[in-house]
Amino acid sequence: MPNTQSNFDFAEEFRQRIKAFALRVMKLTDRLPVTPSCRAAGAQLVRAGMSVAANYRAACRARSQREFAAKLHIALEEADESVLWLELLNEAGTLPVGKLDELLSEANAIMAILGKAEKTARERIRREKDAP
């Protein structure tokens, strides 16, 4: 039973972590230069960054293992898209060098955690399907 509590604790901590990520993305996009390209990239980034949190929360309320895995996959896709927009903003030099490094690192870490969680969920589904 301690493992279940541990999983619950991790899920809650991760939920708070991705919420904080979404807030950081919101604040970043509000500080981007007012240019057509930054407006477009910022709008896509804020949508994707906030969607990571929303879809993870939806996964936590899933009614089945399949629904859980599907919602995790959507959150993973949105995290990957967030990484893309952060990389583009960084490489375009829209902010001082190094300003996006920490947020980009956090986006990559979130993506790695979601990828591992989705893989584990899909393995559980396969095991349940193969069980007698």
Automatic annotation (TrEMBL):
Domain of life the protein comes from: Bacteria
InterPro entries found in the cross-reference section: 23S_rRNA-intervening_sequence, 23S_rRNA_IVS_sf
Matching Pfam families: 23S_rRNA_IVP
The name this protein goes by in its record: Four helix bundle protein
Organism: Hymenobacter glacieicola
Lineage per the UniProt record: Bacteria, Pseudomonadati, Bacteroidota, Cytophagia, Cytophagales
